[in-house]
Amino acid sequence: MDSIVNLISDIEQAENINLILYICNDHSSKRIDGSDYFNLYNCLKSNEFDSKRETFLVIHTYGGNISATVRFIETLQEYFQRFNVFVPYKAMSSGTLICLASSRLLLGRLAELGPLDPQISSESIQTNVPSIISSADIKSYINMSREWFGVNPDQSIEILNQIVTHIFPTTLSYFYRAEKYILGKIVEYLQINNVDMTIDRAFEIANSLVNGYHTHNHAITRTEALKIGLDIEYPNDKLERTLTELVDLVQGFMRKAMTNESMGFIDSVIGTSSILVCNTH
């Protein structure tokens, strides 16, 4: 752990930046949850940041709970008026929302963002359905009925009845509210960091991220991110190599811990040049 903290400090000095890590274990099912913004807070309050430097969050995550993600963002905003995000590999699903809240978004060559359509476990809904369903799945059912089976608009009530038979109405209203919430947050973050962006353009981008993809695990590369209108940057080779090697070191540390019973299984690491906080189970 000391080697990681020391490397963070060395990078800060060499690049003249403040550096924060949020890295999830590739071998874990860890997703962003309520523990993360508490761990982030404990890291931030234990560190003295140079207000004259740019702050970079280096992130690797497959996403998680939207409400917890928003609290994670708000915790960062409590300490920094502006912060940048660097993605070496993945910031999928709600991890993409963190990226959208940044002042500068730097994507490495292998970086992947992801769609933001709301999802819910189907265990509490009904058996014989996929373990996870999203709002996009429900909307696609209507389109599929029309395109595949020629169902006409006059039969929309029948289609709705079929959906309600399998998915409780309040679950449908949850999807509706969740989608509205996510769309609103995307628009909010885009406009905060792009003062010239109109609300119509921000909503167009938000709608692309929420409703524009056929699968939730679609990988949005940096080329595609530019096409949908995201304001991203390509990091210079030195910075990308340095920060990617740091992430690889943290992943190696978490893999090593998997073989050490005294350390426990580390799901994620949040760290600064003063402290590392490991989420274990």
TrEMBL record:
One annotated Gene Ontology cellular component of this protein: membrane
Gene3D superfamilies associated with the record: 2-enoyl-CoA Hydratase, Chain A, domain 1
Which InterPro entries does this chain map to? ClpP/crotonase-like_dom_sf, Pept_S49_ser-pept_pro
Which residue ranges run through the membrane?
A: none
Sorted alphabetically, which PANTHER family does this protein's record hold? PERIPLASMIC SERINE PROTEASE
**Protein name as catalogued:** Peptidase
Species annotation: Deinococcus ruber
